[in-house]
Specification:
Elements lengths: L3 H12 L7 H13 L6 H17 L7 H4 L8 H27 L35 E3 L8 E3 H12 L3 E4 L6 H14 L7 H24 L14 H14 L4 E6 L4 H7 L5 H8 L18 E7 L2 E7 L9 H15 L8 E8 H6 L1 H9 L11 E6 L9 H4 L16 E5 L3 H18 L3 E6 L17 H9 L3 H12 L6 H15 L20 H5 L13 H11 L10 H14 L7 H15 L2 E6 L14 E2 L6 H4 E2 L12 E5 L5 H13 L3 E6 L10 H8 L2 H5 L6 E5 L14 H7 L6 E3 L4 H13 L6 E5 L13 H6 L5 E2 L12 E5 L3 H11 L5 E6 L1 E3 L3 H10 L5 E9 L5 H11 L5 E7 L10 H14 L6
Parallel strand pairs: 4-6, 4-7, 7-8, 8-10, 9-10, 11-14, 11-15, 15-16, 16-18, 17-18, 20-21, 20-23, 23-24
Antiparallel strand pairs: 1-2, 3-9, 5-6, 12-13, 17-22, 19-21
Helix pairs in contact: 1-3, 2-5, 5-6, 8-9, 8-18, 8-19, 9-16, 12-25, 21-23, 23-29, 25-26
Amino acid sequence: MMSSSGQQLLMDVNHSLLSGGNAPFIEGLYEAYRRQPESVPPEWHDYFDQLEKAEEAAGPAGSNTEAVRRRPAAATGAAQDELILTTERKQIAVLQLINAYRFLGVRNADLDPLKHQEKPHVPELDPAYYGLTEADMSTVFGTGSLVGAPRAPLGEILQTLRQTYCGTIGVEYMYITDTEHKRWIQNRIEGSRAQPRYSAEYKRHILERLSAAEGLEKYLHTRYVGQKRFSGEGAESLIPLLDNLLQRAGGMGVQQLIIGMAHRARLNVLVNTLGKLPADLFQEFEGKHAQELTEGDVKYHQGFSSAVSTPGGVMRLSLAFNPSHLEIVDPVVEGSVRARQHRLKDRDGDLVLPVLLHGDAAYSAQGVVMETLNLSQTRGFGTGGTVHIIINNQIGFTTSDPRDARSTLYCTDVSKMIEAPIFHVNGDDPEAVVMVTEIALDFRMKFHKDVVVDMVCFRTLGHNEQDEPMVTQPLMYKLIARHPGTRKRYADKLEAEGVIKPGEAERMVKAYRDDMDAGRNPNKTIVYGYKSPDAVDWTPFLKNSKWDMQVETGLPIADLKNLAERLTDIPGKFKLHPRVEKITADRRSMAEGKLPLDWGMAENLAYAALLKDGYAVRISGQDSARGTFFHRHAVLHDQNRERWNEGAYIPLRHIAPGQPDFTVIDSVLSEEAVLGFEYGYATAEPDELVVWEAQFGDFANGAQVVIDQFIASGEAKWGRLCGLVMMLPHGYEGQGPEHSSARLERYLQLCAEYNIQVCVPSTPAQMFHVLRRQMLRPLRKPLVLMSPKSLLRHKESVSSLTDLADGRFQPIIPETEKLDSSNVRRMIACCGKIYYDLVAYRREQKIEDVAIIRIEQLYPFPHDDFQVEVERYPRARDILWCQEEPGNQGAWHRIQHYLLRHMRPDQVLGYALRSSSASPAVGYLAKHNLQQKELVAAAFREEI
């Protein structure tokens, strides 16, 4: 028996791409083995024993090899050794050739339906590169780990390799480090020689799906001439691909499948895969819209939900809404999937499957793709693997030269960063397309990792139906013009095979057109009117969506103390860091009323209270567990143990028996993908508080597409409700341009139609109540919080247990000091940290005729509350807005209109702020302090 180490070495030798430089080393070992077997390491001894036995089994005296057959009868000694050594060299060369095809066979695969690109010469795929000649073709060699016969003539081995790796399927997987994954792929690809084998019945089904794909495009092209639809012509194999994927996934127990894609072929997928009624689509082409949305969106951005019958039962389908930012939907889909998996307790990702469809140019060029891939195997964002499908038009947007489209050989190369296997396939071979899809899905379901299907096809029309591609790609589009179409080619093939009768393919085409004329969908797997028992009921948030609805967010003091006790109850022998130990001790004192509550304690109490009420909580961001400003400490670390899963204690997971989940994630260093993920999560789970925290507020700049296209406008465009909370640390502390402003002005500019909430809490109690209100109020709108930095430890920015027990969130906090209202000459309105600077200046200067109010909710603006404040000071000659930000930033340009609406005719509006600036803040602390001092003083000057 070979030792385990010897078996592993044999596997490694047979499965590695042995370079020619290794041959002398192996030959030297073999020569030493021949002379004195025990002189080589045991694993090599076992390996060479195996080779010897294989030669003996092949025939007496190794008569099967050409080298031995040519050996002279008198050859002895050194000559005999040389002949044997030559045989072994060639055996190693054959193993090298096998592995070369595994690595590089894709370069010579028949992937281009247009035969537009000339295949490159790859020397490593030529037997001569390894010293193998035509004379060796009939020589029998060991095939190593090549699936099939253990020994075969070289010519047969070569034919097998070319058939497997250079046909209409090309595979990339040898960069994967996990041997089990590689072996699994080899068995599936080499075991079948990459040759699809389907029944005649299923081949007819594939043709029917191709006919549907082509039929819809041709119907729309003739009925709605010139209208943009981003046709899927040239990529018709996508529809049988998705059909097979859905049915196979359903048969494997998948209950929900969530799809994200840009607009290429989207209408085709909506109708032929998800079952949208053609009559409804035609209405949209005619300028009508079935849904009652505030604004709506173009038809090729619309999402859709349906259900299909599968061998495993009914499976729910959802196509995510998506703007023109092509790949931004990727993390949104992943977040939605994660939420659904969480709801179903689907920890491995067996019940909910994400499928992302990409364009070749966008997949390789847009950074959010890489960011999303990077989330795939992390604990807080993984979804059990995604099936990626590339609709590879070979042309991208308008470029036909890959040198201008990307810097990598293939558009899919970015997938290699997570070692995802890549299956390239010729879109003109629909059976091969279906086959690799089955392999890809099986890989994902077995190993729960991402997998990529790169369907190489073409784009029959231009970027859209009003484009003329011949202008920029004349030669390519001459080939496309001569291409009969994938459906026609496949129909001819099936007719030649006797699978279909003459005229049967055209009858399929006519039947589909008849269905289109009638406005009905011929897909018999669609289950109309299905209501899943696992679906979320959003009705309460639609019926009760009133902004001014009051809810009680306070808790009895006894309950607050009980929650505080749970938050500060640390396991025995758990050694805290001295600073954290001090914070925990202080929090115990806060619960006893010995110390006022700070922000970290109030925020943790808000989460604890929600958990006790039955709401799950999910927080993510860079350093969110500890808190960027060392304030949250939701995760405690044992100083004697460093491994996170062993040395961490999370008090919020121990609030009450049977409580829902509390999740806090120190996210990867990404804003765009992570915020997109959390938005997707929140749109699928209304009963969980979902919080994304920026390390500094302006870091959200890197996720502006998510904010503009989804968070601010998703409800208006698509009717998508979302209760996501964005915490954006904001405040001018002299830390320079990039660590001061969360760009408050950008969020206020996006405010309209009551789409989002923008709040600037100035006390711990306000933070407690606004977080509680976000879940307890039957309203799901995004909440943008300008959260504090220096205020986290400001001696006056504190609250009491009574503030949490008796209060609620105050959109406006009136003047808190005792002033004679009849004596007030000015009312200063402000928000955030500047309030404490204003109060300090007023005390220092002993000013008693200026009232200061805090506007804690900037949008929707609390008009009634503000009117009360204006009427409180009947002799105030003016109202002044004070802010830290420059005049062209912050709230000034938005807030002035609200203030003017409530001012009396005899009042004037003034302001105190930094001068308008191209930069958010100065970079020098001394200059910052001078500006701050000046603007605070300006707020109290007699004249404005």
